[in-house]
Amino acid sequence: MDPDARAAGIESSAKAVVQWLSRVEHDWLIVFDNASGDHDGVARHIPQGNQGNILFTSRNLSLARYVSCDARTEMDNMEEEDAVILLLKSSLKDECTVQQRQAAKLIVKELHCLPLAVDQAGAAVASGLCNMDDYLARYSQCCIALLADATFKGASNYGHAVYGTWDLSFKAIDGAGTEAARSAIFILQTFAFFHHENIAEEIIRRAAEASKVAFISSKDISRGNSLSSQLLQLDQEGNWNPFFFREGIHILLSYSLIKKAAISGIYSVHPLMHCWSRDRMSYEELHSSSSFAMALLSASISLHFISADVPYCRTLIPHIKAVHWYIIESGVQMPYDDRQCVNFGLAFYKAGYWKEAEHLDIQVMQNRMKILGAEHPDTLTGMANLVLTYLSQKQWKKAEELGVKVIQIRKRVLGEEHSGTLMSMENLALTYLNQGQWKEAEELGIQVVQKVKRVLGEEHPGTLTSMANLALTYLNQGRWKEAEDLGVQVMQIRSEVLGKEHPDTLMSMANLALTYLYQGRWKEAEKLGMHVVQTRKWVLGEEHPDTLMSIANLTSTYLCQGWFKKAENIGDDVMQTRERILGREHPDTLMSIANHALIYLNQGRWREAKDLTIQAMNIRISVLGEKHPDTLMSMANLALIYLHQRQWKAAEDLGVHIIQTRQRVLGEEHPDTLTSMANHALVYLNQGRKKEAEELTVQTMQTRQKVLEEDHPGIMMSMANLALVYMNQERWKEAEDLGVYIIQTRKRVLGEEHPETLKSMANLASTYMNQGRLKEAESLRVHTMQTRTRVLGDEHPDTMTCMANLALIYLSQERWKEAEYLGVQVMQICKKTIGEEHSVILMSMIHLAQILKSQSQDSQAVILRENAANLQKQRH
């Protein structure tokens, strides 16, 4: 006892001490260590007056009422290094090897740095039960014994085991016997089968409110007792009443059995506590709790899916996976019922987990075939859902085969103009579109549009979706005017019928912006794309997948305009956001990584482009497989990088593999296959194998002429490549004739100022120059440069290339000063706008060195040539 207290004759009782402290006038300190009693009990032991200090340590958050906000500190888990120190101390390891410290790190990670668990682990090591190296092996076998045995006392004098501590809290709640206490236990046992993080109140709300919808009855989410009914209670308006739930949550928070996140309505459970809550259940409790958790998750997923549901579905995925795993772990036999398979499959599908969705869709289809028969409408719906999943995974052959089967049965059973039949036909048209069978896609698309207009009406959302898909077919066929006209029509009707901010209207705008992009109308594409981005941010949120997709499309617009830095910065933001929200292996994230590599490629940053492309390719191989179209696209991009790096052999070997695989997987006439062949011809050309380059280019061109519309941009691209081959073969007349034809066609189809038209003119100027027709070459180069300056801007890479080539003509004409002026100007602008590694810079340095040498400025020419050589080494 304090000497002053003894001198004052204070008795050795808590009440006497409290009364005495209320009277003394000097500072004092009371410590309530691990205060977990009731509020009134604590209040009785707080002295009156304003002297002294009180320190509470407690897991009971309700005791925070006795202190001000600025005097309260919530302790999180220990830092890893602190946990390692505690483990070594409690295991009596004054000195340890590097290997033992590494083992200690693994142990504290497994125990999630929970101090009491770490302390007990050290005690188990100190007792000789196990050593630092084999603790985790023992833990995996005897987790409950190690965490529940109070005889393992480490550095602390706490006196309770980890599980024993939580058992005390559980007994205290259970002993209260109130409705709130029963709610708390019920919620804790349900949470035990969700993922331990990001448990949202919204799950309960959605599940409760789903019970008022006809196709979901309340019995589907009831455990047959009053607790589930109270948890899912609705008010008179049919909205969820959260009172019972929040009463239970309040109790759990007060005992620190769960934690509340900064975001309202989000909770988490410590992983070890999460495990304890399952370990203490009987088999009957495991069965009922897991069943209820699974039913809650399923009922919270709406079949009437809207875009706003996508973020919710993403948050649900860890819980769906967790309940499945914990059911298996607990030994409870509980397969999904039909509705759960459908709902979980939908959630996986919308969140981009297509493999998982496919597995559940197949299960639904097979079960319905067995129970209902192959021609039952529900079986056909299951088959149609599987078609969509195949489409999302780009398994086009499977999608086509199953899609044709669904259409045939639906036509026979439901009729040719039933909405289900028309939907299946529309999906088959999309399958044809993705396989490059554009003629078939167009014919079926037109047929669907005509029928849905008649059956559903011209302004029905289903009709507008069919029209939008047909516009995409026109876009892929290079019929950009028709794509634009139909796209504008769909957008206008959707704006009037659905509203300008409806997700479908915004999708129409996004597609129209893409049409402008293909037409080289980059300013219009940028303006409309920016509007879509801003509206989606406001309507859907900044991190919604559709918002991120529109931002990614906007970076393509910037890339086309030569705004590489802007494209890089925004693309990097999209890539990082997608990785954080969707995960590194999500298809959208991988698309961002691949697109970012292309941004580096356009800047001539071959090394960075190569590293990122290989990264995307390896993940795609692991997740999607070697033959998936996205994986093959990554390989094709890598072959293109090898081509730029002059690694001809690597480009050739990979190119052959891509062509053969695409021919086998996609077909010999698929656009991607033909693009691979066209790129491979360029590899031959750069290797000096001109005959092989010509043969492959002609083969590609003839196939494109057979499968594509006349004057399609793909055919024009093949012709341009053939003209390039003729130039390398010094077949000037054939190169010139073909070049003139390409320019005339592109002027007619694309317009005189389209970037591809201007590229054709630049190539023809090179043909003139190689024939020594410098005046004609100069005239065409000047025209091209002036047009590019006006249309693209004076800092666009294409404009810079044109200026550099014009400087080369001046060099050939011995107009040294004009050549030098243009060469210096190109270098200065390029360094400022597109970086020193771009190919235009390298070309300008080489040309400028020639110009300087021609003016007898040999030393400067040598320096410039050496700098160009060093730059070339860095790039490769």
Walk me through what this model shows.
The protein contains 42 helices and five strands. α9 runs antiparallel to α10 (179-191). 45% of the residues are buried. It has 876 residues and is mainly α. Strands 3-5-4 form a three-stranded antiparallel β-sheet. A two-stranded parallel ribbon has the order 1-2. Residues 213-224 have low confidence and may be disordered.
Q: Specify the structural class.
A: mainly alpha
Strands side by side in the biggest sheet: 3-5-4
Q: What's the total count of β strands?
A: 5
Please compute the radius of gyration using only Cα atoms: 35 Å
| Terminal CA distance | 80 Å
- Mean pLDDT comes to 85
Q: State the helical fraction.
A: over 70%
Largest beta-sheet characterization: 3 strands, antiparallel
**Multimer state:** single chain
Q: Work out the strand percent.
A: under 5%
Tally of individual helices: 42
- Poorly predicted runs of 5 or more residues: 213-224
Q: Rough shape?
A: globular
What's the quick description here?
Helices cover 70% and strands 2% of the residues. With 876 residues, the chain is mainly α.
Write the layout of secondary structure elements.
Blueprint: H1 3-7, H2 14-23, E1 29-32, H3 39-43, E2 53-56, H4 80-90, H5 98-110, H6 115-126, H7 135-141, H8 143-148, H9 162-176, H10 179-191, E3 199-200, H11 201-210, H12 226-231, H13 243-254, E4 259-260, E5 266-268, H14 271-279, H15 283-299, H16 309-330, H17 338-351, H18 354-371, H19 377-392, H20 396-413, H21 419-434, H22 438-456, H23 461-476, H24 480-497, H25 503-518, H26 522-539, H27 545-560, H28 564-582, H29 587-602, H30 606-623, H31 629-644, H32 648-665, H33 671-686, H34 690-707, H35 713-728, H36 732-749, H37 755-770, H38 774-791, H39 797-812, H40 816-833, H41 839-854, H42 858-875
Parallel strand pairs: 1-2
Antiparallel strand pairs: 3-5, 4-5
